[in-house]
Each structure stands twice: as C-alpha cells, then as structure tokens.
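During the reporting period the student researcher (J.K.) took over the structure-prediction task from the postdoctoral fellow and processed the backlog of single-chain submissions. One of the processed entries is reproduced below for the supervisory committee.
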Amino acid sequence: MKSSLDPLLPEAQVDPDARPALDWPTDPWDATDQTGTVERLRRQTRPLKWIVYTAMVLGIVMVMIAGAVGWWYLGKMNPEGAAGDVQSFTVAETDDVDSIAQRLYDQGLISDVGVFEWYVDRNGGLEITPGYYEIRPNDHMGNVLGRLRTPPGQTYTKVTFPEGFTVAKMAERLDVTVDRLTATDFLAAANDPSIRSSFQPPEVSSLEGMLFPDTYQVSNAESEGQIIERMIALMERVGEQEDIVNGAAAEGSWAQTAPRWLLAALVVLLVSFALTALGFAIAWPMDSTQAFHAIINLFLIPLWLLSGALFPLSSASSWLRLLMQINPLTYGVEALRSVLYPGSRGEFSLVASMATLVLFSLVMFGAAFVMVNRRSTKPAA
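J.K. obtained the following structure tokens:
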C-alpha cells in the first residue's frame, strides 16, 4: 500500500507502523479487567416510588382523620358560645353515670352522652352524691363534672332578705333567687305549727317579725323549712345578745303611759324648740341676715352631720364618737329611733335621751332669753 504523504516531507521517510503512539491518551475504559457500576433504567425504580408515595398519602389521610376527630371531640367537650343560665339538676339515689349522662343530654346540659361518659372515665370517674345541683348549659364538660363532684351541701346560693320584708316577700325573693325552691313551699313551712320562735306568743301562729333579715348562704341540700329555722335561730341569737325582752320591759312604762306618736311628736318639738332658741341667740346681735345665715350654718351643719342620722355612733372612731356623744342632736336621733323602733337597741336609753333633750332646750332658751333682754349700746336707727 502506497503512502499518500508527500515524499518530500520528513514524515514520509518514517514507517507509520514503527512510530510509537505518543499521542494516545490514557482512558480507564481501556482496562478490560475492571468493570464499573451500571446505572439502572428509570422503569426499574418505579415500584419503590409508588410505595413511598402511598405511605405519604396514607399518613396525610390519617393525620386529617385524627384532626377531624379531635376537632369534633373538642366541639362536643367544649361547645361554642357562652354558657347559659344556671339550671337545677337532681341526682337520685338510684342514678349511675349512664343515667346521669342521659338526663344531662335530655336537659341540654351536655352535647353528647358517649363523650361525657368517656371524659368521666378518663378523669377519675364520678362518686355520685344524691341531691340538687346547679349546672350551666353549653358549659365545658370539665365544669359540669366539677359541679357533680361537689356535694350539694357545699354548693351555696346567696340570698338577701332586706329589712321590712314580710314573709310573703321573703318567699318571693327565695323563689326568684333559688330555682329549686318555691314560694308555695316556703309559705307552707312558715305556717307549719311545728316551727316556732321562742319570742312568738302562744296565741300567735304567724312568723311575721320572727325571721331575721340578713344575707344567707343557702346550700343545695337545704329545704324551705330548714331555711326558716335558720332565720328564726339567728333572730333568737341576736335578740338574746341585744337583750330585747329586758329592754322592752324596762321601757314598757313609756309605751304604756303615752302613745308612740305622742312621744315622737314630743321629741320633734323639743329639738325644734332648742334649735329655734339657738337661732334667736345667734341672730339677735346680728346686723344683717347674710351674717346670720353664715354663722348659723357653722352650727347646724356639724350638729346634723354628727347626730348619728347619717352613720351610727357604734361604727364611728373613738374621737368621732366622743364628738357625737357631746352633740345634743345625737340624743334626739336616738330618742326617735327608740320610739319608732321599739325592738332596736340604741346607744342611750329613751329616758336618758329625753332628759338630755329637755336640758338642751332649757339651755338654749336661757341663752336666747339673755340675749333678747340684754341692753343694747348701739344707737337706734
């Protein structure tokens, strides 16, 4: 085979087969004794991917199901919206958790029977105590369970009976405040001949005036009759502390010799007479009515403020009590209270109050008499 190279070139003088292959690069694929890793085709990895994708989808579905169940459970355990007004719920001796849960659901106090039973079981169970309970509808099941775990004797409702309330008004107030108690049963218990007060005359069957007005904590275990007995007991205890019987006997002569309205009129007359005389004594030397009003207010306002008409003498501080005891109008207020409220026990007796008023009236009349009859050195107008 003839060479195609130009015979004049240097390369044409060299045999190509005899030249060393200096320009051949080293390639690892040329080593026939070494075999590399062969990459798998895409179709061979598809089953593994499907397994991973399926596991991921199942996990997401399970999380969504668990979230939906948890959301439903929370909605049953704690319904949306505020809790309603308190309702009475009665637990009988024959009740168990299943019957209580069913009646709670029937009355609209819980949203699901099964969830409530599961909640009670997971939170230590329920020791059933028969009695009356107060439960709010649409409330958290934890609060419902807490109220059922509180014995009726430890659950109270505050009821206030103001002074001047008759037995009928007390019955109405109790009926409105405590749902499980009725005015009819309260009046029936008040007319029960077996419930009497030690202050009650033998021939009197009514308890009017025998029930002490106060604020009471009524438990869910109490009946209407037990509440009346508490009110009678408190009246008797206060009466013994204030010695109402002996106090009334000591002042019985005043009540028998003169009607109470006459005594009240006498007290008002003495106070008016004394203040009028005080006004005369101050006004007589004055040259103008403006000066008189300015001066008289310096006397009348402190006398009125410290008379016991605004706050009782017993609750005043020591130095303020001393000023009130010096104030003659204090005895006028005490005398009126003794006459208008014979059962009340004041700081002073009616005799001492009347004597002080008479003395105050005489002193003021004497001062006014002296001022009017004093010779004036001022020139006549």
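The committee noted the following: The CA atoms of residues 334 and 347 lie 7 Å apart.
J.K. will present the remaining backlog at the next meeting.
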